[in-house]
Design a protein that fits this description.
Blueprint (H helix, E strand, L loop, with lengths): L1 H21 L2 H20 L7 H19 L5 H24 L6 H25 L2 H25 L3 E3 L3 E5 H22 L4 H33 L14 H22 L1 H9 L3
Antiparallel strand pairs: 1-2
Length: 279
């Protein structure tokens, strides 16, 4: 299992690096839309005894809303408002994780799916449209580093369960190890990929890295919570050792919201773009 996870992760990183370097952001946006649409299909499967027709309806509705964003019909103010709503949802999701186990209704599951998938797509799409593609790579490196750090720290040091009723294998020590590794990777990636000084890397990415990691953990546990509620192990089949699409983008769905909203509100992206030209 570990060998499959490592091989799949390495292949994914290489594919992403090639895509970021060679593909225009417009093409990447359509790829992301396709992946998130598959995620919507999988999320609908978290509803117990859902019919294929209802599952397809949910997927189509989510796709249409995301397509509207992809085609540029939503203003920055609208996107920002949606991301604020998503932040509130993730706070509520964290509370639900603490209170689990509990039975979720079909309406709550569907609404949660909309708030997980649509805002995260809008955030990712906004990121691709308005910032250098290296920002996307930095974000993903942060999240992957948190995943890898949590895995190995949890295996070697893990004693205290993080959320035993949701994901018994995750530990607090693993989460701390993932946080530390992710912050280090985020700062190093920002320094070299954006060609800025160490001071500016820390200034713009230290706190952001922490926010991304914490939110990514909540995202991971939220998807695990809905899978456990539905009685399924994986959301689907996508990459060997990784399960379905939602099993891979669960952390990203939360992390990208906080990452993009931080850049939108702080103006860090514009500041860094100007710094990288002179540093």
């Amino acid at each position: 299992m570990l060998k499959q996870r490592v091989i799949s992760a390495v292949l994914a990183i290489l594919a992403l690096a090639i895509a970021v370097y060679y593909l225009p952001s417009a093409e990447l946006r359509w790829i992301v839309l396709s992946v998130w649409t598959l995620g919507a299909w999988e999320w609908a499967g978290f509803i117990k005894n859902v019919s294929p027709v209802k599952r397809l309806m949910f997927t189509v509705v989510a796709f249409i809303v995301m397509l509207i964003a992809c085609l540029g019909y939503l203003s920055t103010a609208v996107v920002q408002s949606v991301l604020f709503v998503a932040v509130i949802f993730w706070v509520i999701a964290a509370v639900q994780i603490v209170q689990f186990p509990k039975e979720f209704s079909t309406i709550f599951t569907l609404l949660s799916g909309v708030l997980v998938i649509v805002p995260s797509y809008m955030a990712f799409d906004y990121l691709l449209q308005n910032f250098k593609l290296w920002y996307v790579l930095i974000l993903l490196l942060m999240i992957w580093a948190a995943d890898v750090g949590a895995y190995f720290s949890g295996k070697t040091l893990g004693k205290n369960k993080l959320a035993p009723n949701v994901s018994p294998g995750k530990t607090r020590e693993g989460a701390i190890g993932g946080l530390i590794l992710s912050v280090i990777v985020g700062l190093v990636a920002a320094k070299f990929l954006l060609d800025i000084s160490w001071i500016n890397s820390v200034k713009h990415f230290a706190v952001l890295s922490v926010l991304v990691v914490i939110s990514s953990v909540v995202g991971d546990l939220t998807v695990s919570m809905f899978k456990r509620n539905a009685g399924v192990k994986d959301s689907g089949v996508f990459l060997p050792g990784h399960g379905g699409v939602m099993d891979r983008v669960d952390s990203l769905c939360a992390g990208v919201v906080f990452f993009t909203l931080w850049l939108m509100l702080s103006g860090s992206g514009n500041n860094i773009n100007s710094l990288s030209a002179i540093v």
